[in-house]
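The protein record quoted in full:
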Amino acid sequence: MQRNPLRGAVYEKLGSCTVLAGILGWSGRKTRDIVSGQQMPTAKDIDELARALEITEPEEFVRVFNFLPRSPQKEDYENKMTRGE
């Protein structure tokens, strides 16, 4: 399995981050940082990325964006629920 499915989707569908940046109207830096995982995208960024990459199927959305780090609060909550606290 690919380590960064977002990067794979960008290069497969558009060929480069430069093309994606142009479509989104983002700076090249922001685009590269998000695609490489150096910057956490906002919910709006994710929505814009999904539209630019024409991701419409839920399964593909989960596959492409599931690599994003989870918030510490969510992990703490899930750990507590697992332990039955």
